[in-house]
Amino acid sequence: MQYDEVMVRYGELSTKGKNKKSFINKLVQNVKFALHDFDELKIHGGRDRMHLTLNGADSEVVLERLKPIFGIQNFSPVMRLERDMEQVKKTAVAMVQELYTEGKTFKISTRRSDHEFELDTNDINQLLGAEVLKHVEGITVQVKKPDIDLRVEIRKEGFFLSSQTILGAGGLPVGSSGKGMLMLSGGIDSPVAGYLTMKRGVEVEAVHFHSPPYTSPRALQKAKDLTSKLAAFVGSVQFIEVPFTEIQEEIKKSIPEGYLMTVTRRMMMRITDRIREERRGLAIINGESLGQVASQTMHSMIAINDVTTTPVIRPVVSMDKNEIIEIAQKIDTFELSIQPFEDCCTIFAPPAPKTKPDVEKTRKYEARLDVEGLIQRAMEGLVISKIKVGDTLEEQQKEAFSDLL
Ligand code: ATP
Ligand code: MG
């Protein structure tokens, strides 16, 4: 069915008091961005709801695009009619018919904000109910838990009919809580950490460390592909590549094996913090999960976190691997993450890193390095690109292949 409008209900937004207006503006902006290729759409963010006037745009596609946008509780495709009961009857029957399969039940729920209208809600429920029963063979009324709930709103500006409520992504509009730098490896955890932070309204930029020629171009591409999956929730994500080869070689040369991992992580943390500062981010996000590996004990966290006072957000810190994997599957990053391309840390990882690194010793060993010089050279070599939804290698190959057919 070609609908006239989509009505979007805000989630938690409505409880945000004074900030509400800026939250709504952000959400409108994100929705516009996700639908930027529909010139005919008109989007209006009201206090309690957002209205999308479709003007002929394909409602199926619009509904699909709304699903991943954070800050939306649910939404309904809507028919908007003139104040003409005959027209309403016909449309009500057509809408129920579209959803009807054998054995399904229905009800009509009318709300009337225009109290001057000659029929009251009961009259309308009965009138339309009778019409549906007459035209949809086999259907029955069920008031408590109907399969199809046709909602009718009688307003001054017209009559509005909707029969479906589609669950939105919840959370807060991305960007409404500021910006953070996501340390994105090629693993399972960090994309999930990125997703969970975006869900709370944070605009995320991905920082990825790579060490060519020890790490392959495929490993870099994998991190970009993961970023493209995260971009599905916002349209695009900035991807920042950090050249890390020199630093890893220097660390390998001068630092005792047991402290390689700790010092490597400290360098990553420092550089991410520098990038954050330059790009006006407020926090660092990573995929650390307590106890998962040697670098993720509380002692390690102390030693690594020693280099900054910037808040480090660890959304998966207390989750079990299975719980993280479940989310990775939901956001479609899992299959990519388990591809076997080694990232920079795995390659230089010693067989037995210290699980309880000592902060003083870490600082002492690290003093053997030209920390500032190494950071500066890495900063000069940053490569920044904007990654959009559907930018993954696999999708590009599919597209190239379809051109050949
Ligand atoms: P992940 O599944 O996210 O790779 P992991 O279990 O493999 O995590 P580690 O390799 O110890 O854990 O990494 C811990 C965190 O450090 C990662 O979640 C990520 O945030 C960050 N990190 C590790 N390697 C890189 C990298 N090459 N570039 C950017 N960040 C990284
Ligand atoms: Mg990893």
UniProtKB/TrEMBL annotation:
It comes from the Bacteria. One of its GO terms (molecular function) is tRNA-uracil-4 sulfurtransferase activity. Pathway: Cofactor biosynthesis; thiamine diphosphate biosynthesis. Its EC number is 2.8.1.4. Residues 60-165 form the THUMP domain. It is an enzyme of class 2 (transferase). Keywords: ATP-binding, Cytoplasm, Nucleotide-binding, RNA-binding, Thiamine biosynthesis, Transferase, tRNA-binding. ATP binds at residues 183-184, 208-209, 265, 287, 296. It holds the Pfam family ThiI. Its main location: cytoplasm. It catalyses: [ThiS sulfur-carrier protein]-C-terminal Gly-Gly-AMP + S-sulfanyl-L-cysteinyl-[cysteine desulfurase] + AH2 = [ThiS sulfur-carrier protein]-C-terminal-Gly-aminoethanethioate + L-cysteinyl-[cysteine desulfurase] + A + AMP + 2 H(+); [ThiI sulfur-carrier protein]-S-sulfanyl-L-cysteine + a uridine in tRNA + 2 reduced [2Fe-2S]-[ferredoxin] + ATP + H(+) = [ThiI sulfur-carrier protein]-L-cysteine + a 4-thiouridine in tRNA + 2 oxidized [2Fe-2S]-[ferredoxin] + AMP + diphosphate. It is found in: Cytoplasm. Belongs to the ThiI family. HAMAP family: ThiI. PANTHER family: TRNA SULFURTRANSFERASE. Catalyzes the ATP-dependent transfer of a sulfur to tRNA to produce 4-thiouridine in position 8 of tRNAs, which functions as a near-UV photosensor. Also catalyzes the transfer of sulfur to the sulfur carrier protein ThiS, forming ThiS-thiocarboxylate. This is a step in the synthesis of thiazole, in the thiamine biosynthesis pathway. The sulfur is donated as persulfide by IscS. NCBIfam families: tRNA uracil 4-sulfurtransferase ThiI (TIGR00342). This is Probable tRNA sulfurtransferase.
